[in-house]
Amino acid sequence: MFWVPRDAERGGVRKRVLKGWGDLSSREDEVGVRAGDPIFLSPDHWVDPVLSLYGQSRVFRKYTAETKRNYTTDIALLLTSLSNRGKSWTEATPKDLEDYEDWRCNAAANPKQIGGPKWDRELAAFTSLYGWAKKAGYLARNPVLMREVVGPNGEVRTVAEQKAVDSRPSNVHWLTPRTWDLWTDVGLRGHTRDGVPQPGWVGRLEDRNVAFVRTVRSSGLRRLEAGSLLTFEVPELRLDGGRYYHGKVAAQVTRSKSARTYYVSARAVGDTETYRESSRAWAVRQAQIAGRYDRLPEMWLVTEVTRGLKPKVRWCDQNGVIGERELNKLTWEERTLLFEEGPHGPEPLWLWLNEQGLPFQPHSWDGVFRTANQRCEQVLTPPRHLGMDPHKVYAPYATVHAARHSFALFMLVVLNDLMDRKYGLTPEERRDFRLLYGDPWFLVQNLLGHANRKTTVKHYLSPVANLQLESMLTTADAPIDAPMPDLDRVFARVARNAEGIQDIDARMAPRAGDAA
Questions:
Q1: Where are the alpha helices (DSSP H) in 184-243?
Q2: Which of 145, 409, 435, 473 has the most crowded CB, counting CB atoms within 10 A?
Q3: CA of 416: how far to CAs of 280, 353, 367, 441, 460, in Å?
Q4: Average per-residue pLDDT in the chain?
Q5: 3-class SS at 30?
Q6: Does residue 454 carry a pLDDT above 70?
Q7: 417, 480 Cβ separation under 8 angstroms
Q8: Does position 480 have pLDDT exceeding 70, yes or no?
């Protein structure tokens, strides 16, 4: 399997072209190959023409870049397995897929077994490929057996028979607010177990990373949604203050392809402004001095962003060609091409930049989180527990999506509290308030951009389902200050009674004999 990076020159990196391949781009255009289309090679290095057609199909091209990457990898693994058994992918039978599932998920000889959710993703890739091939007439029989099921709303759906029985709807886990602060201080800001900066600590783009984490923590934005923000899509601090600010996330970068309003804390907005005025400005200036932007193979210099219900972005490219598109319809890849004219030359409109002053791609945030997790483990875990702390008792573990989960949990607790305490509602008044504005579940559903309330409840009910939240809040030991209470004690009680919530407790505090 070979992934075709037709846009490999983006980011200012030019590739050397082999002799005789200088016209590769035009030859690709002739056969309809686009950037991001996969090309599958057989073990003897021949291109499979039918698989290449799948990579150029409407079915495949509608997927996001991450889904394309994942499906291509999953399909390549299956092709390798079939090839080792002397079969091509078109000769696969249902029994072959059953054997492959058994190897991937259950075989004792497989040192890297996968779980139900991962298998379901691979199965979705196979269902896509073989469904397309059968419909296009390249197969007489689809080896992925299907069956009809009745959905939650009574609709009849077709699903693959081999869907995992142990699959969970999502890998949901949470960190409480104070645990997020500990993770940020240690993992991103170089603090020690004692809570002070480590001598000589030099964090790479520390202000950028802290600003991003606090943005996703307080907004609930997904990785792609937050990672592809443009500078003018982030609200600015106002002189009259405010605890939360709102902005718009563009439709094309959301999962539902529907634009929505997002809310972000004033602290996160302030951190973002600090980043823009410090390390980001420095990286941009250094890139200008080094001429990196001048060497970009493609750049859209924005001349105007219109206002109204459907804002449009207008630009001029390096060849003088004028372009225009709705802001909501720009893909994240196209957003990396947007620049504005600054006092010293072109400047990216993409908010988050790397040290070279070039757009920091959304999936790269996983590496930032991975490095921070490793530092937290090294600093906070007592030596005798290193590698033996599966429940993150000593060192918290975070992902970008965990920030979204944590935001949802935080808002559920806070909104319930504000409804009960700040407004002093009686049960009858609370019922009327719900009828008019919706209950906290409805509000969190809109904040997360879920199309269905059931999705919100399914993912986030478990940590609060058995805690009698209203009773717990009304019997707190001390009065809670409005408008935004300190709910550390509440979250600590939620964490003690629910699975998967990481909170700071006595086990995470320094203890005699446990010095790192």
A1: 206-219, 223-227
A2: 409
A3: 39, 38, 35, 9, 14
A4: 81
A5: helix
A6: no
A7: yes
A8: no
As a three-state string, the secondary structure of 288-355 is: HHHCCHHHCCCCEEEEEECCCCCCEEEEEECCCCEEEEEHHHCCHHHHCCEEEEECCEEEECECCECC
The full length of the chain comes to: 516
Confidence of residue 171 (pLDDT cuts 50, 70, 90): low
What value, to the nearest 5°, has the Cα angle with vertex 402 and ends 267 and 243? 20
Looking up tokens 């563009």 gives 250
Given a contact cutoff of 8 angstroms between Cβ atoms, the answer to whether 248 and 311 are in contact is no
Q: How far is CA 261 from the centre of its chain?
A: 18
Tokens matching residue 167: 């699959």
Rounded distance between C-alpha atoms, residue 116 and residue 256, angstroms: 24
Q: What residues contact 370, with CB distance under 8 A and at least 6 apart?
A: none
Residue type, 93: T
Please compute the mean of the pLDDT values over residues 39-51 and round it to a whole number.
Answer: 84
Least Cα distance to 489 among 219, 178, 217 occurs for 178
| Segments in 205-278 forming alpha helices (H) | 206-219, 223-227, 266-277
pLDDT computed for residue 328 by the predictor: 96
Share of the chain above pLDDT 90, in %: 48
Q: What is the bridge-based pairing of β-strands 501-502 and 174-175?
A: parallel
Is the pLDDT reported for residue 228 higher than 90?
Answer: yes
DSSP-derived letter for residue 471 is H
Least confident stretch, 116-125, 243-252, 395-404, 505-514: 505-514
Q: pLDDT band at 497, cuts 50/70/90? A: low
Residue 421 sits at the vertex; the CA angle it makes with 420 and 427, to the nearest 5 degrees, is 30
pTM of the complete model: 0.73
| Structural contact between residues 158 and 147, judged by C-beta atoms closer than 8 angstroms | yes
393 touches 508 (CB < 8 A): yes
> What are 244's strand-pairing partners?
265
For tokens 């932007």, the residue is 293
* The dihedral formed by the CA atoms of 324, 325, 326 and 331, expressed in degrees to the nearest 10: -140
3-state secondary structure of 431: helix
How far from 360 is each of 4, 255, 381, CA to CA, in Å?
21, 20, 31
pLDDT in tens, 250-303: 999 998 888 988 989 999 999 999 999 999 999 999 999 999 999 999 999 999
CA distances from 279 to 184, 191, 266, 273 (A): 18, 20, 20, 11
Stretch 345-369: mean pLDDT: 96
Residues 365 and 372 sit within 8 Å (Cβ to Cβ): no
Neighbours of 3 (CB within 10 A): 15
Where residue 163 falls among pLDDT bands split at 50, 70, 90? Answer: confident
What value, to the nearest 5°, has the Cα angle with vertex 75 and ends 74 and 76?
90
The pLDDT of residue 451 is 63
User: Cα(27)–Cα(280) distance, rounded to whole angstroms?
Assistant: 39
